[in-house]
Design a protein that fits this description.
Keywords: Signal. By secondary structure, this protein is mainly beta. Helix content is about 10%, strand content about 35%. The longest helix has 18 residues.
């Protein structure tokens, strides 16, 4: 039975509503995660298992330091032979010591004294070199899902408990965290990396494996993962340890107990949702033949990782050969985590026997941005911040030689190794082989009918696979005819949409092609520097105050490449952010440093030096003598360096600390900037940087500019002025997360110092406040609209209150910039805990707005 209404003759655009499946089923990377132990000969079969932890002896991959990368590749090819045909992927963990299972020290590394064998420079140097080999072997191996850093300690878990090191601790030392973290960050550019403990590797953006998941005895581990808050870009997982602790309390004595008892099962699901967990082991060892257990397993499987549900789709009902087929769809992630790799979304036209007649890729779809909700509420069993509805659209050129007839339009998500359907939508409309049918399209005629059935079940489908090599996408007409030799049109309107001291952001208008554009190559000074599947790109790792020139070329699946676009030039900001305010160098003699904080040479820094080793509950840097004439809120531009995302705490005049997020600048020699608002007294002030839980970035200098974004002399707090620093999307001027998706222009673009948002009954924006704003009585949004009257199109949520902009303010948006003020107190906004400011645009409007600034006064 079809889920679509019957189409009439003379068909125009068709809109269909789709139904979520109630099935639990396999999907790549997520779900119950079986384990292959060190002496196992192969991977087990599991009703939901697609990703498998693999314990690997160090000496299986390397014994002598001179062993080659090829040895690792050869071992992998033997151990993992054929798993691509079963759509299985591996999470490798290499270990040296497996208690009660053996020790596998490589030749040349001293060992034997447990108090000292883990801390030698010989081991550190050997491990860092070995990680580079692993990267060369595995970073582009499609069989590797992601990597557990492992190596150090018992089971590679970064501890040696119950033994202790010479200093009385049992955790991986900071020097090894730094060495291994740097090596892994460099070696694995294409694979995600996980570490064991959230209180380690503080200076690195890694995911976590909670190996005592949800145990009542180790809830601090889960809370630490929640606090690290890396789930939007890094994978969290783990296993339920059934061999220690008060497991009878929670989460149960065995996998069967966990899954069959609703109290245990809901408790574990709560932690899956809170930590945005993608996969979980040990609990996979349940008895699938027990009805109560099997039912619980199905419920839990649906909560892991991503769960993409198509809500609605609109498509051209009929298309002439050589014409354009428009397809758009709405999708929501009802799971717990994102999908972490950039896999393409495909539209296809199927023959009556369900073979593919034509296919093409949505150039503006990035499934990594299809986020789940956040802020799990165990009482309501929902996320307090609901997942945003994502809108994806594409215009596809239908080949002129495609025979007239009725075809089935289907969607699929492809594994780029082989470009085969793989990650599946959670909809009742399903065809074996990984495709989700939407409706019938007539080529050269109206569709004959809209009967899509019968549909297939998802769970029994074991036909999916991937390839070991990545070849160009073979899109276009599959039914014969001449080969595609036509190049796409030249990209138009190349423009600079934003810049910082180390990056330039570009946008351009889409190219067209007789079959379909598959992407764009970006050139800096005539040299290729990257590719994009959408019409936007950010070039990073640039030098401050330097001019760069760019062009863009479009390409199609057949390898045809367009001519170069027009050239555009941009000069990056100066290292201090280009501000004109008073600058204070970090290394100045009048500043105060404590603990490990130290001055180091820095050729790219403004004064030739920087201050490092700030934080880790030890080193602090205090800028002294920060002088202003009048008391008020000022903008502080912080110039810093860091290959990893970090944070710092700021105290002004010894007051309460405020957290400043410091995104990665790309390397330890690249200067970037962020801005924060500071309340200064008239005369001399102190500003201290510290971090009680981890290392902060290295600091170059700060600059103080007058005024905080409000009227002259007004006490205000700037949330964001969308000036491109920090870069959009990413962070706001409080140094906290911000982003958007679902707009016609995707996440929006920075245009002339404002955020331009184009919307057509869709779009979501979020920017974190997450601090007490009780000193401010109103929020001011400086905004203009394309047509005026857009105040009814946008709905705001802040501090537990949701209203349209019109209802919040009673004011109107005009075609010129205007300050619209919202009385926070009168509106009942919780100013002590405002949480995240969100704006949604799926309320029946289509237009464009420019947001110049958001501040609190």
């Amino acid at each position: 039975m079809s889920h679509l209404d019957t189409a009439s003759a003379a068909v125009g655009p068709i809109t269909v509503n789709l139904t979520e499946t109630q099935e639990a089923f396999k999907n790549p990377f997520k779900g119950f995660r079986p384990t292959r132990f060190m002496n196992d000969a192969g991977f087990s079969n599991h009703e939901y298992g697609t990703v498998f932890k693999h314990y690997i002896k160090y000496t299986d991959l390397e014994n002598a330091a001179t062993d080659s990368v090829q040895k690792i590749k050869d071992w992998s090819n033997t151990a993992w032979a054929g798993i691509e045909n079963q759509n299985k992927k591996v999470i490798p963990r290499v270990f040296i010591v497996y208690p009660n299972g053996g020790e596998y020290w490589p030749a040349g590394v001293p060992h034997g004294d447990v108090t000292t064998q883990w801390t030698s420079d010989a081991l550190k140097n050997r491990l860092t070199a070995f990680i580079q080999k692993l990267g060369q072997a595995w970073d582009n191996d499609p069989r590797v899902a992601y990597v557990e850093l492992g190596l150090w300690g018992n089971w590679g878990e970064h501890h040696i408990w119950p033994d202790k090191l010479a200093d009385g601790t049992d955790r991986i030392p900071l020097s090894f965290q730094t060495a291994l973290g740097n090596a892994a960050s460099q070696a694995f550019q294409n694979k995600k990396v996980q570490v064991r403990y959230p209180d380690t590797f503080q200076n690195f953006n890694f995911g976590f494996l909670w190996d005592s998941f949800a145990l009542i005895d180790d809830l601090a581990g889960g809370e630490g993962i929640v606090a690290r808050n890396v789930w939007r870009t890094q994978i969290n997982g783990g296993e339920i340890a059934y061999d220690w602790g008060q497991k009878h309390i929670q989460p149960g004595d065995s996998p069967n107990d966990t899954l069959s008892d609703p109290v245990h099962r809901d408790y574990v699901i709560d932690w899956i949702k809170k930590t945005h967990t993608t996969s979980l082991g040990w609990v996979d060892l349940y008895d699938a033949g027990n009805a109560a257990v099997s039912q619980g397993a199905a419920l839990m499987q649906k909560e892991f990782g991503y769960r993409f549900v198509l809500n609605q789709a609109t498509f051209s009902g009929s298309v002439q050969p050589g014409g354009t087929m428009n397809v758009s769809f709405q999708v929501v992630n009802k799971g717990s985590a994102p999908f972490y790799y950039n896999w393409p979304v495909e539209a296809s036209l199927l023959n009556s026997d369900r073979t593919v007649a034509w296919k093409g890729i949505f150039t503006n779809a990035d499934i990594r941005t299809w986020m789940p909700g956040d802020g799990w509420n165990s009482s309501t069993r929902q996320y307090n911040q609901a997942p945003a509805v994502q809108q994806v659209s594409g215009a596809f050129a239908i080949p002129s030689n495609m025979p007239a007839g009725t075809y089935t339009l289907a969607l699929s998500i492809l594994d780029p190794y082989g470009y085969k359907p793989s990650a599946r939508f959670a909809n009742a409309n399903y065809y074996t082989g990984g495709r989700t049918p939407l409706g019938k399209v007539g080529i050269g005629m109206d569709p004959a009918n809209q009967n899509l059935g019968p549909f297939d079940q998802l769970k029994p489908d074991n036909t999916l696979s991937y390839s070991l090599t990545q070849t160009p996408y073979n899109g276009g007409y599959s039914g014969g005819g001449s080969a595609d030799t036509q190049a796409p049109s030249v990209p138009g309107n190349l423009a600079v949409s934003g810049k910082t001291s180390n990056s330039v952001s570009l946008t351009w208008t889409a190219s067209t092609d007789n079959v379909g554009v598959t992407g764009y190559d970006i050139y800096r000074g005539g040299i290729a520097v990257g590719s994009a599947s959408s019409t936007a790109f950010t070039d990073t790792g640039l030098s401050p105050g330097t001019a760069y020139s760019y062009t863009v070329r479009a390409k199609d699946a057949a390898g045809n490449v367009s001519g170069a676009s027009g050239s555009v030039s941009a000069t990056t900001n100066a290292s201090g952010g280009g501000g004109t305010g008073t600058a204070y160098e970090a290394e100045a003699a009048g500043n105060t440093r404590t603990g490990a904080a130290v001055v180091a040479a820095c050729a790219t820094c403004s004064g030739g030096s920087k201050v490092g080793y700030i934080g880790n509950n030890d080193g602090t840097l205090q800028f002294n003598g920060v002088s202003v004439q009048t008391a008020g809120t000022y903008t502080m531009t912080v110039s810093y360096l860091g290959a990893e995302a970090r944070s710092a705490q700021i105290r002004v005049n010894g007051g309460s600390p405020a957290t400043l997020n410091l995104p990665s600048t790309g390397s330890w020699t690249t200067v970037g900037t962020v801005q924060a608002q500071v309340q200064l007294n008239a005369g001399s002030n102190t500003i201290q940087f510290s971090n009680p839980t981890g290392w902060a970035s290295d600091l170059d200098r700060i600059q103080i500019n007058g005024g905080g974004g409000g009227e002259t002399g007004t006490n205000s707090l700037l949330l964001d002025n969308f000036d491109g620093s920090p870069g959009w999307p990413g962070s706001n001027d409080l140094g906290k997360w911000s982003g958007a998706n679902g707009f016609v222009n995707q996440a929006g673009v920075i245009e002339s110092g404002a955020l331009k948002l184009q919307y057509n009954n869709d779009g979501w924006l979020g920017t974190d406040i997450t601090q007490n704003i009780g000193n401010y009585s109103k929020m001011v949004i400086r905004i203009k609209g394309l047509n005026g009257g857009e105040q009814n199109h946008v709905q705001l949520t802040i501090g537990g209150v949701t209203r349209t902009l019109a209802a919040f303010s009673g004011d109107t948006v005009t075609t010129g910039y205007k300050n619209i003020a919202i009385d926070l107190a009168a509106s009942g906004v919780d100013r002590a805990s405002p949480g995240q400011l969100t704006m949604t645009f799926w309320h029946g409007g289509a237009s464009t707005v420019w947001i110049d600034e958001i501040r609190f006064e």
